[in-house]
TrEMBL record:
Protein name in the entry: Peptidase P60
Family according to the record: Belongs to the peptidase C40 family.
PANTHER family hit by this protein: CYSO-CYSTEINE PEPTIDASE
NlpC/P60 domain boundaries: 97-237
InterPro entries the UniProt entry points to: JAB_dom_prok, JAMM/MPN+_dom, NLP_P60_dom, Papain-like_cys_pep_sf, VirAsm_ModProt
Length: 239
């Protein structure tokens, strides 16, 4: 990056501190420039979200080269969520640590987060992401993503899993039918909407793979608390 771009990124990080800043590096009329964007994250767990309209406005200016955001009070080293999101964006990323101003740059390289031990980041590394990743890696099946805001299960109206499972090949498994590897177990865990808000994959030997809110993804024995929270079991049926 050009020094003027680096200076602009650091100035933006300083102005937004202690919040995360975010923006885009663009080439417009043969010149590189930094375009600061509004961080539209709903909660601290979202970290940063660049609004779709801001990205579109940047594309109107020129070619978008990179995504930028800051890491307040920590290093510029990318998190698992940063690496996953970078892969999805197809763009180079620059992370600036603030205070300090150190910048770490990286690009898509084929990174995949581990199925077990991944850190939670809603919409990037969460329970639905884990279900999708398991199906992609174990079955070669690509399940469509679901647009979702953090804490959607407390907004008084949303029922995302039950509203979307049929379109993604899920059929309800009758009560009492033995579980099969790959079955998706929907649970309700402290949902003010009273709807399923947590998904796990049955992986055999009485175990599930899942990723609870703000925790690491893990394997657990299915039963007890998890069985009590279960509201339905879905089975993927190819169309």
């Amino acid at each position: 990056m050009e020094q003027t771009t680096v200076d602009a990124i650091r100035a933006h990080a300083e102005s937004e501190y202690p919040k995360e800043c975010c923006g885009l590096v663009v080439v417009a009329r043969g010149r590189e420039r930094y375009v600061p964007c509004r961080n539209a994250a709903d909660t601290p767990e979202d970290h940063f979200v660049i609004p779709a309209e801001a990205f579109a406005d940047a594309e109107d200016l020129g070619d978008v080269l990179a995504v930028v955001h800051s890491h307040p009070d920590t290093s510029s080293k990318p998190s698992q969520a940063d690496r996953v999101a970078c892969e999805a964006s197809g763009l180079e990323w620059h992370i600036v640590a603030w205070p300090g101003g150190d910048i770490y740059s990286f690009a898509p390289s084929g990174y995949e987060a581990p199925l077990v031990g991944r850190r939670f980041s809603h919409g990037v590394l969460d329970c639905w992401t884990l279900v999708r990743d398991w199906y992609a890696r174990e079955r070669g099946v690509v399940l469509d993503d679901i647009e979702r805001k953090d804490l959607w299960w407390n907004d008084g109206k949303s029922d995302l899993y039950r509203d979307n499972f049929a379109a993604r090949g899920g059929v309800v498994v009758p009560d009492g039918e033995p579980l099969q590897v790959g079955d998706v177990i929907l649970m309700e865990i402290r949902s003010r909407n009273g709807v399923p808000n947590h998904a796990a994959v049955f992986i055999g030997d009485g175990k599930i793979l899942h990723h609870c809110y703000r925790q690491l993804s893990t394997r657990d024995v299915y039963g007890g608390y998890w069985a009590a929270c279960t509201r339905m079991v879905l089975r993927y049926v190819p169309k």
